C-alpha cells in the first residue's frame, strides 16, 4: 500500500472552510442564506487567515525573523490566531487586550505560549492599541497592527473571497459581515466586486451602547486605516440583545455554535432577506461558540 509522503502542516489547514445553508430560521423565502463557517479554521476563527498572512508576508519582506518579538492589541480572536501562528513560526508574542475578554480566550492564547497584558475595560481596545504602539516605540518588539496592515485584507482577497465565489458558483448577490478590524469585509468585498460589481457588501456595527465581542463602533481617531467606507454598500446597526438572541437560535435551531458577532451577522442577513427576492446571501460565521461559554451567553432562556 502506498502512503503519502508530503503531509500538510497545521498552517496548510487554514482556509477552505465550509459554506452551509440555513435550514429552519429563514422560514419560507425565495432567498438562499449561506453561512461561511470560519470557526473550522485550526485556531477557531476567521482571524487565522490574516494572522498567518501578516507574519508570512512580514517574513518575506525581511521585517521579522524567527526569534523576534511580536506585539498586538486584540479583543480575542486575532490574538488566538496570532498565538497559533507565532507558535508555528517560532516567535515570542505579547498580546494586549481588555480584561473583559472571556476566560476561554485568555486561556487559549496562553496555551499557545503567548504572553498577556490586560488593560481595563474602560481603556478598552483603544487603550490596548495605544499601549502596543508605546511598547514598540520603546523597542520591545514589532506591532503587526491588524488595523492598518494591508496584509490583513489581502488574506481575504487571496482566500476567503475566492472560496465564497467558487462555493456559490458565482451566484452570490449579497455579502454580510460584522465589522471589527474590517479586514474581512474589505478583502472579501474587493474580491467579490472584482468578479461582479453588482454584489452588495453589507457591514454590521453595534448600536450605541451595545457590547458585542469582536465588532465595534470606532471613534473617528481609532477607525482602522484599512477601512475604506465607500467600499461598503450598506452598514446596519445591530443591538446586543438581537445579536445574542440570534446566536442562541443558531445553536438550538440550526446546530451552528458560534459567537455573538456571528449572530449579529446572521440577524443582519435575515433583515436583508426580508427586503429582497431570489437572492444568494452569504454571511460570515467568524468563530466558535465555545470561547463564550463562561460569559453565560448560552444560559439565557434555558429551562431548569
Polypeptide structure, described:
- It is a single chain.
- The protein is of the alpha/beta class and 304 residues long.
- The chain has two domains: 10-40 and 157-292, 3-Layer(aba) Sandwich (Rossmann fold), CATH 3.40.50; 47-143, Rossmann fold, CATH 3.40.50.
- The protein is 36% helix and 17% strand.
- The chain is built from eight helices and ten strands.
- The chain has helices at residues 48-60, 77-89, 103-111, 124-137, 151-167, 183-195, 240-254, 260-273, and strands at 19-21, 32-37, 69-73, 92-98, 115-119, 142-143, 174-178, 200-206, 234-238, 280-285.
- A six-stranded mixed sheet has the order 1-2-10-7-8-9. A four-stranded parallel sheet has the order 5-4-3-6, with helices on both faces.
- The mean pLDDT is 93.
Features:
Cys_Synth/Cystath_Beta-Synth; 304 residues; cysteine synthase activity; alpha/beta; 4-stranded parallel beta sheet; 2 domains; cysteine biosynthesis; 36% helix; amino-acid biosynthesis; Rossmann fold; TrpB-like_PALP; 10 strands
Strand content: 15-25%
Rg, nearest Å: 19 Å
Main beta sheet: 6 strands, mixed
Low-pLDDT regions: none
Estimate nothing, just give the exact number of structural domains.
2
> Terminal Cα separation, in Å?
54 Å
Structural class: alpha/beta
Oligomer: single chain
Helix content: 25-40%
CATH architecture label name of the largest domain: 3-Layer(aba) Sandwich
The count of DSSP E runs of length 2 or more, i.e. the number of strands, is: 10
Shape, principal axes of CA atoms: globular
Global mean pLDDT: 93
Sequence of strands across the biggest β-sheet: 1-2-10-7-8-9
Q: What is the tally of helical segments?
A: 8
Give the class-level CATH name of the largest domain: Alpha Beta
CATH topology of the largest domain, by name, is Rossmann fold
Order of helices and strands: EEHEHEHEHEHEHEEHHE
EC number: 2.5.1.47
Catalytic activity: O-acetyl-L-serine + hydrogen sulfide = L-cysteine + acetate
InterPro entries: Cys_synth, Cys_Synth/Cystath_Beta-Synth, CysM, P-phosphate_BS, TrpB-like_PALP, TrpB-like_PALP_sf
GO molecular function: cysteine synthase activity
Amino acid at each position: 500500500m502506498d502512503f503519502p509522503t508530503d503531509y500538510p502542516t497545521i498552517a496548510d489547514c487554514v482556509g477552505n472552510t465550509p459554506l452551509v445553508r440555513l435550514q429552519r430560521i429563514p422560514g419560507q423565502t425565495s432567498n438562499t442564506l449561506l453561512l461561511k463557517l470560519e470557526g473550522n479554521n485550526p485556531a477557531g476563527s476567521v482571524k487565522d487567515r490574516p494572522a498567518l498572512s501578516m507574519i508570512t508576508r512580514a517574513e518575506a519582506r525581511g521585517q521579522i525573523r524567527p526569534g523576534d518579538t511580536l506585539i498586538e492589541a486584540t479583543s480575542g480572536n486575532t490574538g488566538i490566531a496570532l498565538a497559533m501562528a507565532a507558535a508555528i513560526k517560532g516567535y515570542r508574542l505579547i498580546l494586549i487586550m481588555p480584561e473583559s475578554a472571556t476566560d476561554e480566550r485568555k486561556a487559549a492564547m496562553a496555551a499557545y505560549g503567548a504572553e498577556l497584558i490586560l488593560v481595563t475595560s474602560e481603556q478598552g481596545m483603544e487603550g490596548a492599541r495605544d499601549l502596543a504602539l508605546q511598547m514598540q516605540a520603546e523597542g520591545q518588539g514589532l506591532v503587526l497592527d491588524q488595523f492598518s496592515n494591508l496584509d490583513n485584507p489581502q488574506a481575504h482577497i487571496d482566500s476567503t473571497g475566492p472560496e465564497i465565489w467558487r462555493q456559490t458558483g458565482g451566484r452570490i448577490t449579497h455579502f454580510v459581515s460584522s465589522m471589527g478590524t474590517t479586514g474581512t469585509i474589505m478583502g472579501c468585498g474587493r474580491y467579490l466586486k472584482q468578479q461582479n460589481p453588482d454584489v452588495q457588501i453589507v457591514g454590521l456595527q453595534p448600536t450605541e451602547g451595545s457590547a458585542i465581542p469582536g465588532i465595534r463602533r470606532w471613534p473617528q481617531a481609532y477607525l482602522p486605516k484599512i477601512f475604506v467606507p465607500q467600499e461598503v454598500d450598506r452598514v446596519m446597526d445591530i443591538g446586543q440583545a438581537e445579536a445574542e438572541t440570534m446566536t442562541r437560535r443558531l445553536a438550538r435551531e440550526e446546530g451552528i455554535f458560534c459567537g455573538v458577532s456571528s449572530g449579529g451577522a446572521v440577524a443582519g442577513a435575515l433583515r436583508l432577506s426580508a427586503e429582497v427576492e431570489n437572492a444568494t446571501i452569504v454571511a460570515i460565521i467568524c468563530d466558535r461558540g465555545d470561547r463564550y461559554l463562561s460569559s453565560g451567553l448560552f444560559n439565557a432562556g434555558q429551562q431548569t
